Predict the 3D structure of the following.
Amino acid sequence: MQAGRVRVEVVCAAGGIGFAKSMLVPASQTLEWCVNASGLYAMHPHVRGQKLGVWGKVMPPESVVQPDDRIEVYLPVDPRATAKARALRPKVRSTGSKGQVTEGE
């Protein structure tokens, strides 16, 4: 690793977005700066202004990055869409002691 630089990963996986980028950035940069530098905002402008976090903990966008941070962009989820998707998934149940699996109705 270069002096004064840290490795971070920027991820977003919701709302039809699947994005992950590992980067080497100056150690004094903020979460917001890293997300912008990753190109996520350029590809998905509607993501700008959403909550950011590190390893599952919501953090202010002006927080300074630390080595090996996983910067996550949190998008709002429509609970109705989530429930509908869950209802459409095939139901799977196990039968027998040998681990046979059959689709339910």
Remarks:
- The beta strands are 5-14, 17-26, 51-54, 57-59, 70-74, 92-95, 100-103.
- Residues 79-88 form the longest helix (10 residues).
- Residues 5-77 form a domain with the Ubiquitin-like (UB roll) fold (CATH 3.10.20.90).
- The helical segments are 31-38, 40-43, 79-88.
